[in-house]
Amino acid sequence: MKTRLALTIQISNFQWSTGVLVHGRQNAKFISILDDQQQPIQLRMVQKKDTGEVCHVRIFADYWLINKTGIRLHYLQGDQHERTRIPGQPKWAAPQPETLMLSMAGGGGNYSSSSQQPPQQQVFVRLATSRLSPALNLAAGASGVLALEDPATPAVFQIAVAAHEAPGPFWRTRVVTFAPYRVLVNRLKVPVEYRQAGTQEVFRLLPDEALPWHWPARDIRPRHLCVRLLDPPSKWSGPFLVNVPQPVTFTLRRQQQQQKQESSKHPVHPLVRVEIRLAETTQYIILRPENMTHPLYRIENLSSYSILLRQKPREQQPSGPTTTMIEEVLPHCTTAFGWDDPTHEWTVHMKILSRSPDARHVVLSVPLNEFKRYPPIQTFQPVVLLVEVLPSGPTTILRISEGALRRRGTTMEMVRKEPEGAQEPVERLAWEAQVMVDSIVLSLIDDASGPLVRAAITTPYLYLSSSDLYHKAELTVRDLRLLNLLPSTPFPTLLAPLRPPSSSSSSSSSSSSRRALSQRSMAEVSNFVHVTAVKARGAGDIGADYFKYVGVAVQPFDINAEGAILMKLMDFKDRVLQGLLRATSSPDSPDTNAAAALALLFPSASSSSSSSSSSSSSTLSSSCLFEPPAITENKALCLGQLDLHPVACRLSFKYVSGFDYSSLHSILSWTGGLANIDAAPLRFNALFVRNTLSTREEFVERVKRHYAGEVQQQIGKLLGHLSVLGAPLSFVTGLGSSTSDLFRESARSVVRVRSILLSMPDLY
């Protein structure tokens, strides 16, 4: 007698399904369930038996729709020509971050990404009272932006659509997220009002509030934003772009009666910085107060004359932007600068006032988006004015200084004149710490094979200091050696410097000698590793970590590798990772993939379904739904000077038989086999970066691309060597010793520090 198993399911807010037979065959069936509105939804059921004759049943929906727009979202499923003939009202997703199941079952739906999908594979959406969108092919999984026009108003709703597979074992379900395309975030300490340029409808944004932004007038082009402060009130700012990921600083002009009440310690007209950060498919427009220590633009008047400056005005002022205002920079003063019209040309008109009524004023136009040193301006005898635009970390500086022309032989030489009483800022040391250890020995021991590698670190020295201007860190390692502890190895030393450390550079135990050690040049103390970092203080408010200098130098070293130790280390690494995975995923703990899927599908556990009687255009009163993710708050990385000096090494390799080299299969299939390499010199050229501002991810990718290209070049050099010898790599027994001239190549980078250059051997 055969027993048949029928399966029925129930999901929250759904009724019990009809019974479906479970027979263990590898095919797909459908389970139909009814929601609270008696609308059927068909879920897919996949049955499959494993080798132990255990039947696994998986039930899933084709799609999950997540609405994060804050406005009620309607969707229709079907053919474009049958939109008006679909019975009943369209389904909707509530303003809360609610998830709705959507099934394509019964429509011949497969998981192909072809553009020719059945009608049931297409979905049309509508936001509030807008028109229906064009057909969305959810199976294709494309992401983009929808512009939905409202027929009752001139507004246009812009929503971002992102489709991707659910994590882990839920990969059969595709998650489709609808989110606002633009979100305004107020990081100022006062409330602001904002509007579209050319319109009169005004909106309000409280401090630390985030709200989506949709254009209220779709026919006004170009589309710009304007803001103003509420406490104290200010004039409307000039229009600024929201589709360019470049930060910009603009000035909010206050009323005349408010300017007299301002303290001299603060600018009369506050500066606001606009940053645009992208997270997934949403643009976050963040309003921040300008950092007065490291602003985007700074005017330095080092001359003894007053300067009037303003942004270059438009030839014909449009109705939206405010007119550019004139500011005065007093002699020997410095001030931050912001634009009155951020969408116009970023050029400053300057007028240098003469103290003599008979002399003419100097008028000059200087674009701030071009680093340039202008020819000396000889007007007020015997003074020569020097104007230059130069970078300083994240800041663009317009500097006006004085100089004099002196005759030197047959030519005239310009000499800069320092202002009277001008002094360099004195760096006041707050604290410092020095740590020095004679030696550190670390051993890597495998339970199966015993000791593998021992690391011997000689005289590591760490110096840390903090002042009112900078944080400084310096790390030096005199000597580093990795020893191969396998009993029968052709290379007892796995890694070691080419040049042993000098005996005269032994350290003293006194604190004065330790401080002197940090100040010695590398020509006197041949350290194997030298790392220096100088970070400027006070740059946190600009959303960037400003490093004035970062330098890394490594002395040439030997790498003596053999097949046995490489296989042992790779096997040890795999077993450690497997042990960590087993420790983090205990049987009693919930599945991490399931937790990730639940967090993705149900962003808020407290969110409940909204009643159908609520208004379809209502929005959320709380802005927690639109709070930018943590990735948008990550600070950018600003580097004034980065010096990653050349790295040179000599590579030796011995092939040891009797080991399984399957883990190196990709390398072996490319090179043709293993070869014995004898002291082949390799060099990775330097990377020098000056005055760059980027995200950490962009900086890491830039460094990775540089060294990936250097590695490819060195591998190509080895393969080119083989082609000269006329033999494949697997037949080469000695590589590098007898044909060292083939490795001579011109260096593309020159070592910038002379002390480092003096300590380098002839390998460079």
From TrEMBL:
Residues 496-516 are annotated as: Disordered. It holds the Pfam family VPS13_VAB. It comes from the Eukaryota. GO terms for cellular component: membrane. It is found in: Membrane. Residues 4-344 form the Vacuolar protein sorting-associated protein 13 VPS13 adaptor binding domain. InterPro entries: VPS13 (IPR026847), VPS13_VAB (IPR009543). It is a peripheral membrane protein. Its main location: membrane. GO terms for biological process: protein retention in Golgi apparatus; protein targeting to vacuole. Mediates the transfer of lipids between membranes at organelle contact sites. Belongs to the VPS13 family. This is Vacuolar protein sorting-associated protein 13 VPS13 adaptor binding domain-containing protein. It comes from Acanthamoeba castellanii (strain ATCC 30010 / Neff). The lineage of its organism: Eukaryota, Amoebozoa, Discosea, Longamoebia, Centramoebida.
